[in-house]
Specification:
Helices cover 35% and strands 19% of the residues. It is α/β, with parallel strands linked by helices. Helix 1 (9-19) runs parallel beside helix 7 and helix 15 (343-353) crosses helix 19 (486-498).
Length: 580
C-alpha cells in the first residue's frame, strides 16, 4: 500500500531495500548506520542478520548476490575499513543479483574515532557511489542503486552521513517488487579471483568505469536547478540542504552520483554561472576532480575539511557575514558519562584504585579515559586493545605491563578481539585481558550479538560461551567474575598482572539500560554515619552528589542499586533497601 510517511533517513533506506526486493541483509551495528538493519528486520519477507563484524557481513551479502538474489550490507565508515578486503575483490567479480553497501560517514565525530570519507574509498575500489540528500531520496536512491548494480555488474555504495541517517522528512512509500532470482552459473573467470582470473576482471572493471563515466551525466539522480546565474553551487548529500537554506536564489547542480563524477554535466552547468562553488563535507573529492577537468571553482580554500557544515558556515565563508542565519541555542555543557549502575564503572573503579592503566577499545567503556575514573590510556579501533597491549609487552617486557591490562567489550571481542587474543596465545603473552561482558552491544543501542542467544529478528539461537571460547583457543587461565564483586575483581586482577601467564578475566553483569532489567533495590545514605571522606564519590556515579555540609545524597530515581558506592564506604553510611 502506498503511503506518505515521516521517516528517518535510515528507516527510508530500509524501506527502499524492502521495495527493491532485497532478500538478504547482513550488518554489524555502528552509529549512525545501526537503525537500517533494525527497521529492515521488521519486514518478514527479508532475511536480516547481525554478523560478528563488517567483513563477515559483506561476505554474506556477496554470497547472496552470487546465488542470484538482491542483497544489502550496512555499516559505518570505519566498518568499511574492516570490510575493505572483500570490497576490493567484489568490485572485480561483480554481481549476479544486485548488491548495495550502505556506508554511514560521521562528519563531526558524533560517535566515531575518526572522520573518514567513504567517497575516496569508492574511487580507490572502483565502485560507483550514490549520495541522497533527504529521506525520500534515501528510499529512491537505494532502489536505484540495485538497478545500477545489475545493469553495470557491480556492487554499489550508498553513502549517508549522520545528519541524514538521524533526521526525518516525508517519504512516499511504494509496493515491494521482487525481481526474479538470477540463475547461478559456474564461472571461474568471474567468481574465482586467482591471479589468472583477476587480470581479466581488472580489465572488465576499467571498461565498466568508462561506461559509467559516459552515462553518469544522464542519470536521473542528478538535478540541475537554474536560478540566478551570478552564483552557482555544485553539491550533494546533506550539504545541498545547507546551500538551499543559505542561498535560496542561487543556481545549484545537485549530484546524486559521486563516483564516477558526471563531468560533462558539470562542464555544462559551469558555463551557465559566473561564479562556481563546490560544497562538500570532509575531503575535496569532487573539487579536485572538477579542477583536474579544467573547470574553475572555489572550494576548500573557503570551507573547512573538518566536521559538519551548516547554513551559517556557508554564509559566513562566502559573504563574510557575522550575522547567523539561525543562532544556536546556548545550553549548558553536558560531558558524557557512564550510566548509573553501569558494570564498567565498577571494573574501572577497581583498576583506578590499583593504579592500573588500560589499553582500551571501541565502546561505552572508552568513557573510562576521563575523570574521575581515568583508566583508559589508548583507543585505536575495534579489537585493538588486546593487540596494543601485546605490542607493549613485546616491546618493553612483562615488567612494563605489570600495571597494564586490556579491556574490551563482549560484542567487540567477538568482532575482532578473538584474533588478537589468539595472537597472544600463539606468541606466548603473559598479559591480562578483561572482557567487559554486559550482554549486549551497548554503545550503538543494545543490539544482540553472537553471545547473547538472540538474533536480529529476536529469535532464540545458540549463544557463544566466552569463557569456554577463551579456553578453547588455549588461554591458560580464564576467570568469570561478577562485575560488581569488587573484592573478587581486585583479587583476580592483582593475581593476574603479577603472574607470568596469559589471563582473561570476564567481568560479567548486564548493561543497566537493557530492556527487561529490574532493579528491586536502591542505595540510601545514612547521614549520621557519614564521615564525609568522599570515597563513594570517586567512581563518579551520576546518582550520587555531594551536599553543602560534606555528606552525600543519592537520587532514588537514578539509582539502580548496584551497590558500588556501598562497597566503597567503610563506615556503613550507605545501605541497600527495597525500592518503594
Amino acid at each position: 500500500m502506498k503511503e506518505k510517511l515521516l521517516m528517518l533517513g535510515n528507516q527510508a533506506i530500509a524501506r527502499g531495500a524492502f521495495e527493491a526486493g532485497v532478500k538478504v541483509s547482513s550488518a554489524y551495528p555502528g552509529t549512525p548506520s545501526t537503525e537500517i538493519s533494525e527497521f529492515l528486520a521488521k519486514y518478514p519477507e527479508v532475511y536480516a542478520e547481525w554478523a560478528p563484524n563488517e567483513k563477515v557481513a559483506l561476505e554474506v551479502a556477496i554470497g547472496a548476490s552470487f546465488s542470484g538474489v538482491r542483497s544489502l550490507c550496512c555499516m559505518k565508515h570505519v566498518g568499511l575499513n574492516v570490510a575493505s578486503d572483500p570490497l576490493y575483490t567484489f568490485a572485480y567479480t561483480g554481481v549476479n543479483g544486485g548488491s548495495v553497501i550502505v556506508v554511514a560517514d560521521d562528519p563531526g565525530l558524533a560517535s566515531s574515532q575518526n572522520e573518514q570519507d567513504t567517497r575516496m574509498i569508492a574511487r580507490s575500489a572502483h565502485v560507483p557511489l550514490l549520495e541522497p540528500s533527504d529521506s525520500e531520496e534515501a528510499r529512491v536512491f537505494t532502489k536505484y542503486a540495485f538497478e545500477l548494480s545489475e545493469k553495470y555488474d557491480t556492487p554499489v555504495i550508498l553513502r549517508t552521513t549522520t545528519k541524514l541517517s538521524h533526521s526525518q522528512s516525508v517519504v512516499n512509500t511504494e509496493e515491494r517488487v521482487v525481481p526474479p532470482d538470477k540463475t547461478y552459473e559456474r564461472d571461474v573467470k568471474k567468481y574465482v579471483m586467482m591471479p589468472a582470473s583477476a587480470i581479466g576482471r581488472h580489465v572488465a572493471v576499467e571498461e565498466r568505469e568508462k561506461r559509467l563515466s559516459k552515462d553518469a551525466s544522464s542519470l536521473p539522480v542528478n538535478r540541475e536547478e537554474l536560478r540566478d546565474n551570478e552564483i552557482g553551487f555544485i553539491t550533494s548529500g546533506v550539504p545541498y540542504q545547507y546551500v538551499r537554506e543559505a542561498f535560496p536564489q542561487a543556481s545549484v547542480l545537485k549530484l546524486g552520483i559521486i563516483n564516477p563524477l558526471p563531468i560533462k554535466l558539470i562542464e555544462d552547468f559551469a558555463a551557465k554561472v559566473k561564479k562556481l562553488y563546490v560544497v562538500e563535507e570532509l575531503e575535496p573529492v569532487m573539487e579536485e576532480q572538477i579542477r583536474a577537468a579544467g573547470i574553475k571553482v572555489l572550494g576548500k580554500e573557503l570551507f573547512t575539511r573538518q566536521g559538519e557544515y551548516s547554513a551559517n558556515l556557508l554564509k559566513k565563508a562566502i559573504n563574510g557575514a557575522d550575522d547567523e542565519v539561525f543562532a544556536p541555542e546556548k545550553v549548558p555543557a553536558r560531558p558524557p558519562i557512564l550510566c548509573s549502575g553501569c558494570p564498567h564503572r565498577s571494573v574501572f573503579s577497581v583498576l583506578n584504585k590499583l593504579k592500573i592503566h588500560a589499553a582500551g577499545d571501541i565502546g561505552c567503556y572508552t568513557l573510562g579515559a576521563v575523570s574521575p575514573l581515568s583508566v583508559i590510556d589508548t583507543t585505536v579501533c575495534m579489537g585493538a586493545s588486546i593487540s596494543v597491549l601485546h605490542g607493549m609487552e613485546k616491546a618493553k617486557g612483562k615488567e612494563f605491563i605489570k600495571n597494564w591490562v586490556a579491556v574490551i567489550g563482549d560484542s567487540t571481542f567477538l568482532h575482532t578481539g578473538v584474533n588478537s587474543l589468539i595472537n597472544m596465545v600463539y606468541n606466548k603473552s603473559a598479559a591480562t585481558v578483561i572482557i567487559l561482558d554486559n550482554r549486549t552491544t551497548g554503545m550503538t543501542g543494545h543490539q544482540d550479538h553472537a553471545a547473547t542467544g538472540k538474533t536480529l529478528k529476536g529469535e532464540e539461537t545458540y549463544a557463544i560461551d566466552l569463557h569456554n571460547l577463551c579456553l578453547s583457543i588455549g588461554v591458560p587461565r580464564v576467570f568469570t567474575v561478577n562485575a560488581f564483586d569488587v573484592d573478587a575483581l581486585e583479587s583476580k586482577i592483582k593475581e593476574s598482572v603479577s603472574g607470568d601467564v596469559l589471563t582473561v578475566i570476564i567481568a560479567r553483569a548486564p548493561c543497566a539500560l537493557l530492556k527487561g532489567q529490574k532493579f528491586p533495590y536502591v542505595c540510601v545514605s545514612i547521614k549520621d554515619k557519614c564521615k564525609k571522606c568522599g570515597m563513594c564519590l570517586k567512581p563518579g556515579c551520576p546518582a550520587i552528589t555531594a551536599c553543602d555540609d560534606g555528606t552525600i545524597s543519592i537520587n532514588q530515581t537514578m539509582c539502580n542499586g548496584c551497590g558500588l558506592c556501598m562497597s566503597r564506604c567503610k563506615f556503613g553510611a550507605i545501605e541497600k533497601v527495597e525500592r518503594v
